Structures
1.
Amino acid sequence: MSSPRHILLIRLSSVGDVILATPVVAGLRHRYPQAKITWLVDTGYLDLLRENPHIDRVLEFDRTGRHRGLSGIRRLAQDLSPVDLLIDLQHKARSVLLATFLRPTRKKSMVKRQGLGLLRAMWGSDEILRAPHQVERYLAVLGSENGAGQEQQRPLLRVAEADRRYAQDLVGKPTAPLVGILPGAGQPLKRWPGKQVVSLIDSCQQHGWQVALLGGAQEKSLLSELASQVAVEPLLVNSQARLGQLAAILACCQAVVSPDSGPAHMAAAMGVPVLTLFGPTSPDRWSPRGLTSRVIRQELACSPCSNHGRGSCRLGSHECLQSLGAAQVFQALTELLDGALRIQAGAR
């Protein structure tokens, strides 16, 4: 079997999935060092991949413009052809149709559900997936195409120099350890109660740490509301940054606290210590992969109850996160940050 000259990897979204799929492209690069590797991703996610050293080209899938509809996907196939090896980690209608037009020499796809499992998912009662971790699920698609060692099987995110300067201008030179706190999540069920977030911010600042309260544009009102309730204004409140700029701000932090969300994976992929608050979803499958990542959760019989945190609590209590107190989270954060600072001091 000849080595592929052009490899196409498809993982269109979302932030966490794209980050967790980066070990796949590392495996392909180590297996086929001479190949051209293209990653197809949805518009808006380019910042997560543009600095990845294993990728030759990142192409944005413009689903509402140039690549819209059947003719748009055919146009995309013409732009990408020829493809010798296609790795489809999305495996939904658009990527399957694109593969049909491309007719690659070899194709490997991630099929999450088949038969009865697919029917259950369509009815909204799919099985809760736990182990193996999502990184292992992605790497399993490669099979013999995976040439990466253990070191390359950790997610990777690198920051562009312009974004690094943007973050440094915002943050300046903190006079104490900087803790990034991200209260938002794509699904409301995964969010920690706001009163607990406020209490955690107050505890951090009383302890002498500085706080960056961070989120996306959709969380602007949430961040403003939380910032208005804390005893001392945080060093930074930002909901305007692009993904690359947010990554650069996270890289300035000595530790990050987040629910199960994309930015938690971003921080971990840059080596930033991350404390992730899990409730409805499974940490066995979704925990951030990093050398200094830690998960905190309540051990409840009903948790996990969802693969992605969609919908509402079936018991009506949201106990998994409602019962996770700020004091408990602050203690875990203290241990995480103290350990990270000791490692940094020892490395000097």
2.
Amino acid sequence: MAADFNAAMRGAYDLSSLKNPAPAQPTGSDAQPAAQASGDSQGVLKVTSYFVELTEANLRGYISASQEVVMLLDFYSTTDEGSRSLSQKLIELVEKAKGAVLLGRVNLSEHARLAEAFNVQQPATFMGLLKGQPVPLTQGDQPEDVLLQLVDKLLQVAQSNGITGRAELDAEAAPIDSTPRLPPAHQVAVSLLNEGKYADAKAAYEQILRDAPADTMAVAGLAQSELLVRLDGVDVDKVLNTPPQNFDNLLQSADALIAIGDYADGFDAILKNYSDADDEMKPKLRDRLLRYFEIVGKSTPEVVAARARLTSLLF
């Protein structure tokens, strides 16, 4: 999880201005981030609230939202007095900003892995998020004028890097989408799979890999489409209920087990018979297993165990 977050939060900004806050701004009811008044907007993000409790499930969507609108991050603890004070000040500041920024709040006691992903160790940690890149701002409770200065400067940095969007309250706004966005070529391939056009999907993934041989997502997609091509028109129930009579039957039975999600038995069907295969068949069995590993996911417990068994058989 931490690696996924860190991969999504890279960027390069000139943040030197954040180290030297400008003279204090007014802190009364009229105090707002200066950039909030700008009419130079690249778009409006409809939201039901300027505040959100961040979780592993919704973080991806707000990382994407930070491409357009400045995100503030409050890593808090309800048992820490300084953190409670900081949180209240940030909530008030964001309310006054009226859409210039959004505030994502992370409860450290409930979401320790998010804290780890952002390298946060203490409550009352305040950050910005620009185009997915975390920008450390301060740790510990701060006066309102200091927080206002930091947000002002963060907005200035954001504008200089093309982040000029705003959030707008809309009670009927759809939730921010946290579904991973596939590249266009992958979207085409997935659509073909969903339409049952398995051979066309296979060809689409092969083209992706010709263009980008290191695309691991395409490798997995190709393995899946090859599996579905092999099983297209096959009576899977009959295969599963018929004992294999030869290695070709065995491979088809393993295909059927993988297709219904019975990964451990699918791997086992090949592994327990591997030693009985001749020199011509063994490479086919090994290669089929490796394709299954791509489909299921190399870090899943079933794959880790099966890979260890395969290694012992090979050596």
3.
Amino acid sequence: MTTTRLSSIRPGSHWRIVPLASSVNAKAIESCRQWLESQGFQVSYGEHLFERDNDVLHLAGGDRERSEDLTAALTDPAVDVVLAARGGYGTMRLLPYLDLGRIQQENPKPVIGFSDITALHNTLASIGWTSIHGPNAHSQLEGPTGESLLQLLAGELEEITPHPMECLANPIRETVVAPWHGGNLALVSALVGTPYQPDWDGSVLYLEEVHEKPYRIDRMLQQLRLAGILDQVRGIVFGEALFDAEPKDEAVKSLVRDIALLQGIPAWWGLKSGHSEPMFSLPLGTPLAIEPTGHVRLLMNR
């Protein structure tokens, strides 16, 4: 399957903020709108953005309603960028209501978000769309996080992060060029056995996690191994692991190192596109180049 490329986004482009998971904070959405407008963009909201549904799960509207808002944004030619309102929980629940055949016929556009939005990233990858593992509307967009996103969208970013990754296992001698897939580990592992997965063959698996203890992280890594996914990928990049806002680097590094050595594939640590600040936006589904130095460069044709 040929993967689509991201279009260049400039001031004047139309952004649609859509509810995909947990209910939103109106002040956070307003802050996001003001920041986007200050950068010269137009902003609109999904119809059900401020709705609440399910006293147990605290979702941003019903599953069908959230899927309708997403489909409307993806198929509306006036919308240039789709931005997830927030993560939390619930994106998986709307996947059965998406008409992927219809969406696949549309001109692809950047879809941005992270954490629970991993479920959507992997689903879009299954139909050949490139998407962006980047901030949600609830994120702090002022500063490096927003700058990284806008530079990526404008086609001005050559390197994902100024800091090289740390190699944990099986150092490479030549540059590895491969599409990246993944996102939040809990969501990647939860999608195993479903049709909402990318083609892992020959890709680099990107992972990040928050609020998960090391033994739970290991369980999910083992699930990916037992499912055969780690037999298909060319390497693992684990961005970071946070627990109660504290890094669990050394514990999780050892788990990633061990499983990479077992699989005979390289593994890296430290490309921070996750729950800490700043967050560096990462294109998924398009080839990136990992250099022996640990730097990651973009190869997208715009």
4.
Amino acid sequence: MEETASTPPGKKLAMHIYVLPNLITTGNIFFGFFAIIQAIKGEYLYSAYAIVAASIFDLLDGRLARLTRSTSKFGAEYDSLCDLISFGMAPAILLYQWSLQPFGRLGWLACFLYLTCGALRLARFNVQANVLEKAYFQGLPIPMAGGIVASAVLAFKDLQLDATASPWLLMMTLLLALVMVSTFRYRSFKDLDLKNRMPFKYLVIGVAVIAVVAFRPEVNLFFLFLIYAVLGAVFGVLRFGKNRRIKSNAYLPTKQVGPESDLVEDEDGDDDESVDESADDADDEAGHSLGNKAGVKADGKKS
């Protein structure tokens, strides 16, 4: 490993990582690779279940890292690479082998677009990780897109539908690619603290959702995931709730934007009115605070 200016002469930097959460992340990429192998072999059902298993490991690694206070930059980057394999490459190959191969060039280009947009979504998330608001995702998360593909295979199998050369699945692939790189806001539910007391109705809603999914999990999971993706896109197109005053989610404050940053000020200024309102509120609060301080100083001098 190369020595840096801050490293004493003759000393080498050694990398130390948190093993447990990264082993869980390795389970994610293991099942993603297994899904690719099964898709190539024509075992589409096994491939879909492997993607579901990868999503479980993806859910666990972040929770475990935060619970044990073992989050790290290495873990975040490793997780993104694993997500690209499990929810980008694996679903793309599964879609092509399972349904889109008869479309020829159009079929594999649609899968390529899905994979590329997934990679762009992950790269954008890594750049904006410190400035995105906690309660929302910007664009459809790639694990959810992979989950929609996997649940589609399970639903078609349960309903005994023929997926070969399905124009609906081709359209779904293209739409998933577009919403991943969109700026549509998707609820992340990360702000919900289930450890605290909540209204009784939330428990009733949770039980109802479990009952609906358990009635026919292969089909109902697909429709629940699809509804989540469609509603986010519809609300984004209709600008639903754009005038709500929310925390700035995609822009750094002006002082933090430097020449080496990938986040720059938007010259258009038409992206999100709520961001501008939040900035105005922040300026008003700062001005009010400075005014109060000045008043206190003046009073002190008079006394």
